[in-house]
Amino acid sequence: MLFLGFGLGLSAHKDISFLWTLGLLGTLALVVILMARWQVRVLAEPLSQLLGGTRPRVIEDLPRAWSALEQENVDLKERASREDRLLPGIMARLEEGVLLFGATERLEQFNPAALRHLGMGAPLVKGMWVGEVFRDQEGLDATQRAYGGTPCEWRLARAGRTLRVRAIPFAPLGAVSGVLLTLDDVTSQEALETTRQKFISNVSHELKTPVTAIRIAAENLQEEDLQGSARSSAQSIMRSVDRLTLLLGDLSELSRIESGALHLAPVRLELVAFLETLMKDLQPRGAACGVALALDVQAPEGTAIQADPLRLHQVLENLLSNALKFSPKGGKVDLVVRITDQGQIWEVHDQGPGIPEAEQGRIFERFYRAQAAKAKPGTGLGLAIVKHLCRLMGGEVAVESKLGEGATFRVILPPQVEPQEPAGPPIR
Ligand code: ADP
Questions:
Q1: Which residue has a Cα nearest atom 2 of ligand 1?
Q2: Which atom from ligand 1 is nearest to the alpha carbon of 376?
Q3: Which residue's alpha carbon is at the smallest distance from atom 12 of ligand 1?
Q4: Do 390 and 345 contact (CB within 8 A), yes or no?
Q5: What does the pLDDT average to over 165-189?
Q6: Is the C-beta atom of 379 inside 6 A of ligand 1?
Q7: What is the pLDDT of residues 154-175, one digit of tens each?
């Protein structure tokens, strides 16, 4: 517009102005055409790439990516269906029966072995209440404990067989959301165990009479005026008879406990009086070993407990005699007793050689004697007896020890404290 006005207003230079204007208009038109061409190219290029010509790699790879995705989908489906079939396949082949009860105590899953083991007239059905499957009180109590988070085990007699049932809290997401039960047929193991127990019981019983006869004969011999090797032979017979008597005593005791023939006879026990008797019985042994025996009682004054005095005495005597036996001369053994509403804790500490960690789990087995203890007298049955007696009393025994730093045996029994008169200060 500016150029146009300029051109129209100057008539003297009309021709030159006209040419000027024309030139400028031409330049302007050229610039517009060039810009338009550039815009068209920018817009048209992607379109041409879409419709042919040089296509980008993303578009080229699309079909390949699509078919890979499809293949992956097929693989996933196959894997999922294989896994779906895997679990029932494993469950079906298991010899152990498996049952899963859900949060509402209803049966959610079970395998054919569970059906076989339980041998019920009416078959198992999903949705059954746990009490319909296990009608015995022991089973109901055990599953309740498992729902509370404590794994349990019990024996169940079904269709002439003995089953070992384990109830395991089922908590895949942290909190207990059910109970998993496994069933093992242990009929033949139980029969074998019964035969073993009977054999040990019979052997130890039958050997008692000849051993007593040998003891009497050896004692008679020792009363004779024997000389030299005859005298030392009589002494050696006597020592062997002592060891045999100890072993036979422990063996018949263990077989009585294991066979269930031993029954506890709990009575009301005055704690302090009971401990005084125990200490009196063990002081001479401590003195003979040169080891001091100390007692620390943490319980309200006048505490009485319900316990079988003979068996509780036997447990503590076993632990204390071991502690004295393994302590160095001049050492000290402590018996610490704590009686609270939560339970009874009986601890025996010694300053002996300690027990290597690798052997701590084995010392409660029958006949197991730690390598370092072989030089000391013993049968290897004492702790097995202690373990069984503790279980019979509803408790447990455990050991804590570091090599070279002594050992602590801890017996934990359930609370059985009788109602007290007004509690006094603790006795030390
Ligand atoms: P034993 O008749 O051999 O003492 P036990 O069953 O009482 O049999 O003990 C088994 C083993 O445990 C012992 O042989 C010993 O190796 C180990 N043991 C038990 N008590 C102690 C202790 N207080 N210190 C070190 N070792 C111990």
A1: 378
A2: 3
A3: 363
A4: no
A5: 91
A6: yes
A7: 999 888 899 999 999 998 877 8
Quick check: CB of 333 below 6 Å from ligand 1?
no
**Binding site membership of 382 for ligand 1 (Cβ less than 6 Å):** yes
Q: Detail the DSSP E strand segments found in 205-318.
A: 267-270, 292-298, 304-307
User: CB of 269 closer than 6 A to ligand 1?
Assistant: no
Cβ of 390 below 6 Å from ligand 1: no
pTM, 2 dp: 0.62
Q: How big is the chain, counted in residues?
A: 428
State whether the beta carbon of 178 lies less than 6 angstroms from ligand 1. Answer: no
Spatial contact of 318 and 303, defined as CB atoms under 8 Å apart: no
Cβ(369) to ligand 1 under 6 A?
yes
Sign of the alpha-carbon torsion through 134, 137, 139, 144:
positive
CA-CA distances (angstroms) from residue 280 to 269, 321, 323, 343, 408?
A: 17, 13, 16, 25, 22
Q: Who's near 221: CB < 8 A, 6+ residues apart?
A: 234, 237
**pLDDT tens by residue, 267-301:** 999 999 999 999 999 999 999 999 999 999 999 98
Residue among 250, 293, 351, 369 whose CB has most ligand 1 atoms within 8 A, to mutate? 369
Give yes or no for a contact between 207 and 248, defined as CB atoms under 8 angstroms apart: yes
The minimum-distance atom of ligand 1 relative to the CA of 380 is 8
Give the CA distances from residue 227 to residues 210, 234, 236, 239, 387, in Å, rounded to whole numbers and listed in that order: 26, 10, 14, 18, 46
Regarding predicted confidence, which is higher, 132 or 83? 132
Tell me, what's the pLDDT at 8?
41
Q: Which contacts of 134-143 are long-range, i.e. CB under 8 A and separated by 24 or more positions?
A: 134/165, 139/165, 142/167, 143/101, 143/105, 143/167, 143/179, 143/181
Q: If you ran DSSP here, which 8-state letter would residue 129 be given? A: B
Residue 352 near ligand 1, beta carbon < 6 Å: yes
Count how many Cα atoms sit within 13 Å of the Cα of residue 342 in the half-sphere of its side chain. 3
Q: How far apart are CA 70 and CA 92, in angstroms?
A: 33
